């Protein structure tokens, strides 16, 4: 490390996982213990316990790039900054915003930067459901804040054509409440109505709720921003467990006789 | 829990993450501490420390379904079994094999079953590289042990058409050494040669190695079975970091003016 970098403090982008302590990686816990400053979206900053000497810089949603610039500025001022993110910071979260801020400002290169991964919402939801991601899959954000809606539709179409399992992030929007219904309608034109679908809401938190349905019956009104939607491939099926439980399975093999 | 289930022991499918202790979830560590029996592929079983009263049932690769049946049989015999998997058990790993075994044998429904997620190799590699999965992406296994190779090619094609970032699992095979070269050739016919590509080998382990290249220059000879290959979208780019470091970025926005 150069003298300049040592003087510059440091920046860690830290994944907090979906919520429970059992799903926080030890590396993330250690990074939080070393931080002098927390930067992030209000509910994620609130998850980190108070500690003497730990400054909090919580901000509202949709200001990711400002937040990232602020974190670099604090680090250049000698602070040890943790930018906190729910789930994994690399999946539709703060790692990209931080690297974008770095790309726009060469002075930020003096800051030692690392990304500390976390358990993604997708993997947590899959664990509760069984093995819905046991075969090839795609992760798609349905938000059209940062990309045109026709790109979302094109990706849903190509993913359906490739018969991938789909993990749909950011499925609901108060500003655009019809988007998920439009997405389901598009998928229904390309896939069987009997395709298994799961809504996995707030997995790992006290208000966790799993809803198992099919593409034909999937009701967008049951989905909010805390929900991850998983849509099966043509091979995904339900498997009976004990005590009335059903598991969602995307088998390892594809195209094999049943 | 019913009396039958209580007598039946239990089965947990446990994700060990990519390797280092800092990437093992506390829930996984707790599940391992409760286990009387470990079942899994030899190198994963070997990762769990010895402990009095812990029986080990390590098996070679490609016997996943036998391994899953054996785990259920042990649990029916009253043992508390942890089926261990590298990375996340839900991603091209043991969770699917265990649910498939459950599907084939109704007697296994008496066994209380849970999946304990883990940090996937994909998320670990992404953290080292920056934010390659910061936008919509697909995970595809290149193995044709369990699906026809033409399905692999079709998925690569549709994923390229949708301009997804690609995370390629199981990219190398001693039995079929030309597969990755064939996959790169197919992608080169559909995507720019300058598309950023990363080979992330053994991330988190002592022999970790990152190789940054492009689709045009990607050399399959540098890839082995411990490597995850990430191929960018049309928007993925390199970002200069400090000290000669380059980061791989798939920006949050898509189709925006640069």
Automatic annotation (TrEMBL), chains A, B:
GO terms for molecular function: precorrin-3B C17-methyltransferase activity. One of its GO terms (biological process) is methylation. The keyword Methyltransferase applies. Its EC number is 2.1.1.131. Keywords: Cobalamin biosynthesis, Methyltransferase, S-adenosyl-L-methionine, Transferase. The keyword Cell membrane does not apply. Residues 11-218 form the Tetrapyrrole methylase domain. Gene3D superfamilies: Cobalt-precorrin-4 Transmethylase, Domain 1, Methyltransferase, Cobalt-precorrin-4 Transmethylase, Domain 2. Pathway: Cofactor biosynthesis; adenosylcobalamin biosynthesis. InterPro entries: 4pyrrol_Mease, 4pyrrol_Methylase_sf, 4pyrrole_Mease_sub1, 4pyrrole_Mease_sub2, Cbl_synth_CobJ/CibH_dom, Precorrin_MeTrfase. PANTHER family: COBALT-FACTOR III C(17)-METHYLTRANSFERASE-RELATED. NCBIfam families: cobJ_cbiH. This is Precorrin-3B C(17)-methyltransferase. It comes from Lichenibacterium minor.
